[in-house]
Specification:
Order of helices and strands of chain B: EHHEEHHHEE
Largest interface: A-B, 24 and 24 residues
Helix content of chain A: 40-55%
CATH class of the largest domain in chain A: Alpha Beta
CATH architecture of the largest domain in chain A: 3-Layer(aba) Sandwich
CATH architecture of chain B: 2-Layer Sandwich
Strand content of chain B: 25-35%
Radius of gyration of chain B: 15 Å
Distance between the termini of chain B: 29 Å
Number of strands of chain A: 9
Shape of chain A: globular
CATH topology of the largest domain in chain A: Rossmann fold
Helix content of chain B: 25-40%
CATH superfamily of chain B: Histidine kinase-like ATPase, C-terminal domain
Structural class of chain A: alpha/beta
Oligomer: heterodimer
Chain lengths: 409, 149
């Protein structure tokens, strides 16, 4: 309850309730709850059966999960052995998007900094907490969507499969992906059909890796991109940019602090801002298995191994960029938290009430009332969602007073 | 006579306190948001408040910042005790700054503070007494009386 950056969780009757109007799907509660009370919505293997042609789209994070000697091509091959008809290296598209970002920065002189749209939680955080920054969000779809879009048309063209029979599944470290797939913010329908947590495929892949070792490195048809693999960790997106006055940040509190500075107009001289909600980037996602420090080291090793050589054709990306292949269908809309009241005059009254309440509340932020802190309880009270008696201190005091007045009689 | 403010809140700012700098303007932003002020106006006020707050932190001994919400406008006043401004016309020019080398190293003192406040305000007044202090008055109209330049 206390870990929630948008104060979306309340405890009522011994159970945690999430206010989805406030939730940004950051996964903070998922990571920390010792009772596993929060379960993310993802795709289960049985959901896959409805597709005739299944394509796995593993996030570059997947490559960091299986120790220091396993190569991406091995993992890609194994994915085709555990039920997928085709597999595609998302890192390659990450590299394409890197080129597209540069194109956008070259051409577009809108207010800086431009904020990355890769992390779905950051997009939601901006909609909710920093609505005026919506126009700073890079209006290009993230690599997973671009890849899926391309894969579907390719499969339709080359394999002559109906679009609805194709299932494109993200193999993901991220609990927010599924929400971004089922409720996309910048298009009618996501190009992806589902998301499977890395930890759900981990055992299967690990078993096969163990069984087939030692093995000669299998040559997969898929090319692997070193630049793209870097997207798994913080700083990967800006590493290749020629705009060196770009900044990367990870972790939910760090991101909020930085966005506050952007909103105060402090960071106008920065070109591009990569914000990732999970600590150290996507490798810190709640659906991963390997601890993020080991995973980070594995990613860095892979980056060194594959080098910074570009695998995608810059001209091809530029052509696609001109055709708006990367672009959002529509811009990200602000979805700010509702004010204390729709009527500004009432809202002001409620704000005054809230400040009065705050003086009465103990300020210990104990959380017994079910709200994360006293300020939030005061807000809930003026919104009519809680009562002042929910505060154990006030309740004790008032019952004590009642007793005292009873004694006098 | 102007009507009484619907809501008023005051913050104190300590000169030289770079650690807590920016907190008051952050609280102002949250307050305006809670009462449902349009997000563009909140942003303009947040920028103006931040710049004004930083000016107090950098140059003055201490100051107070007061936000007042009226039916049709928001008023932010900043009143500081400090050296004052020698030449206001100069200070209002973009790029002019009396910041020390040290402040510049911290990334401040680009000479854009006051011009930036003026840009974001609908009405901006500044008065200063050398050796005494500076007073700023920033007004932003609600309900789009005057649109952004």
């Amino acid at each position: 309850m206390k870990v929630c950056p948008t104060k979306a969780i309340r405890l009522r009757g011994g159970k945690a309730h999430i206010n989805y109007e406030r939730c940004i799907d950051c996964g903070g509660c998922l990571r920390i709850c010792p009772h596993h009370a929060v379960i993310p919505v993802t795709t289960s293997p049985s959901d896959l059966n409805r597709f005739n042609y299944k394509i796995a789209l593993p996030s570059p994070v997947v490559y960091s999960q299986f120790g220091s000697t396993v190569m991406p091509s091995e993992i890609l091959t194994i994915l085709t052995e555990i039920g997928f008809d085709h597999v595609y290296d998302e890192a390659l598209v990450c590299e394409m998007v890197s080129v597209a970002i540069e194109e956008y920065l070259d051409e577009n002189k809108s207010p800086r900094p431009i904020i990355s749209s890769t992390c779905p939680v950051v997009v939601r955080l901006i909609q909710r907490l920093f609505p005026s920054l919506c126009k700073n969000i890079l209006p290009l779809e993230p690599p997973r969507e671009i890849a899926a879009k391309n894969l579907r048309s390719e499969a339709m063209r080359e394999k002559k499969i109906a679009p609805e029979e194709i299932g494109i599944i993200d193999i993901t470290p991220c609990s927010a992906r599924m929400v971004s797939i089922s409720h996309p913010e910048t298009m009618e329908k996501s190009n992806l059909d589902g998301a499977i947590p890395i930890k759900d495929i981990y055992n299967k892949v690990m078993l096969r890796l163990k069984r087939s070792m030692p093995m000669v490195m299998m040559q997969s048809q898929t090319r692997i991109s070193g630049i793209g693999i870097g997207w798994a960790i913080e700083g990967g997106e800006i590493r290749g940019l020629k705009y060196t006055n770009s900044v990367s940040v990870s972790g939910v509190l760090n991101t909020i602090r930085l966005l506050q500075d952007v909103e105060s107009g402090r960071l106008k001289n920065i070109e591009y801002l990569e914000c990732l909600i999970c600590p150290d980037g996507c490798i810190g996602g709640p659906l991963t298995v390997e601890n993020r420090f080991i995973a980070k080291s594995n990613v860095l090793r892979l980056i060194r191994h594959f080098g910074g050589k570009k695998r995608v054709s810059v001209d091809m990306v530029k052509t696609l960029y001109r055709e708006n292949f990367f672009s959002f269908k529509w811009a990200v809309e602000p979805k700010s938290f509702p004010p204390l009241d729709k009527d500004r005059n009432v809202a002001i009254l409620k704000l005054k009430q809230k400040e009065e309440l705050l003086k009465r509340l103990p300020g210990t932020d104990c959380g017994v009332c079910g709200a994360p802190d006293c300020t939030t309880l005061a807000e809930d009270i003026v919104r009519g969602e809680s009562k002042i008696e929910d505060c154990i201190y006030i309740k004790k005091k008032s019952s004590g007073e009642m007793k005292n007045s009873g004694d006098k009689k | 006579m102007r009507p009484e403010a619907l809501f008023q809140k005051e913050f104190t700012i300590q000169g030289g306190d770079f650690v807590n700098a920016g907190e008051s303007s952050c609280m102002i932003r949250n307050t305006l948001r809670e009462i449902g002020v349009d997000s563009d106006i909140v942003r303009r006020m947040a920028i103006a408040a931040y710049e004004a707050e930083m000016n107090v932190v950098m140059y003055a001994l201490r100051g107070t910042m007061q936000i007042s919400v009226y039916r049709d406008e928001i008023l932010l006043t900043i009143d500081d005790k400090g050296p004052g401004i020698q030449n206001i016309d100069m200070a209002m020019q973009p790029g002019f700054s009396t910041a020390t080398e040290e402040m510049r190293e911290m990334g401040f003192g680009a000479g854009m503070g006051l011009p930036n406040i003026k840009k974001n305000a609908d009405v901006f007044n500044i008065t200063s007494r050398v050796g005494n202090g500076t007073k700023l008055e920033i007004r932003i109209f609600l309900d789009g009386k005057k649109t952004r330049k």
